[in-house]
Write a structure and sequence with these properties.
Layout lengths: L1 E6 L12 H8 L4 E6 L12 E2 L9 E2 L1 H11 L5 E11 L2 H7 L4 E5 L8 H6 L3 E4 L9 H12 L32 E2 L2 E2 L2 H4 L3 H19 L5
Bound molecules: S-adenosylmethionine (SAM).
The site of S-adenosylmethionine has 19 residues, from strand 5.
């Protein structure tokens, strides 16, 4: 998969995407990730990317011209263009799965008060929010989406890191898990997990997942 990111803060991406599983995915060619500086598409002396909103109001908006030029330069007909915005639909594991089917994504990260509306109307195929809160810019949301999507790409995770049984994969939160020791400071692992009875273990896990979901996230049921 190819993912391009358009941002005013390319340096924010160094580090989080250079470690562990995402690093491996990049090195093995499963993920081709390119970070682009929006200012490279602004051509005046000050490389201006923002301006005041018509009609007044606080803050600055990202101007359409550099974003349109960048999109025209960076995308092909098959690129899915995603605007990061608190007004977008909320990013979920199901949306991560949908995006993982794409060949090319362009994530457009905002700053200041956000985007000129024509960017939304004309360029974006989708608008995604990572939650009901406002961040200073879209770099962290972009990284969250890249991480969640990349780990779903075939070949990125090993068997021991499978995505099949984890939270949200069946619309439920994950069941409780334990590792050695079986008795830690008097806190014992449930007997069923030590029983070797795989059918009973699967039944217990399903029940625990439903219980946990109904207690913590009834909205998922
Ligand atoms: C300060 S925010 C702009 C907020 C905007 N004025 C509003 O009320 O929706 C600047 C940029 O950060 C990004 N951003 C902030 N919070 C976000 C969130 N929860 N999800 C996705 N992107 C977010 C977006 O790209 C946004 O354009």
């Amino acid at each position: 998969m190819k993912i391009d990111v358009l941002t005013l803060f390319p340096a924010m991406f160094a580090g989080p995407l250079d470690e562990s599983i995402i690093k491996r995915a990049r090195e093995s060619g499963l993920l081709d990730l390119q970070i682009h500086n929006l200012r490279d598409y602004a051509h005046d002396r000050h490389r201006t990317v923002d301006d005041r909103p018509f009609g007044g109001g606080p803050g600055m908006l990202l101007k359409p011209e550099p974003i349109f030029e960048a999109v025209e330069h960076l995308t092909s007909g098959s690129t899915r263009i995603i605007l990061l915005s608190p007004s977008g639909r909320t990013f979920t594991q199901a949306i991560a799965g949908e995006l993982a089917e794409s060949k090319e994504l362009l994530l457009i990260s905002g700053h200041y008060e956000g985007f000129d509306e024509r960017v939304r109307e004309q360029l974006a195929d989708d608008e995604l929010s990572i939650g009901d809160y406002v961040l200073t810019n879209g770099a962290l949301p972009a990284m969250v989406i890249i991480d969640a999507v990349t780990r779903l790409l075939p070949g990125v995770l090993g068997d021991e890191e499978s995505t099949q049984e984890e939270s949200f994969s069946h619309g439920l939160l994950e069941y409780p898990q334990y590792t050695r020791p079986a008795d830690f400071r008097g806190m014992k692992v449930p007997d069923v997990l030590l029983s070797g009875d795989h059918a009973e273990i699967a039944r217990w896990r399903g029940e625990q997942a439903r219980l946990r979901t109904s207690e913590r996230r009834p909205d998922l049921l």
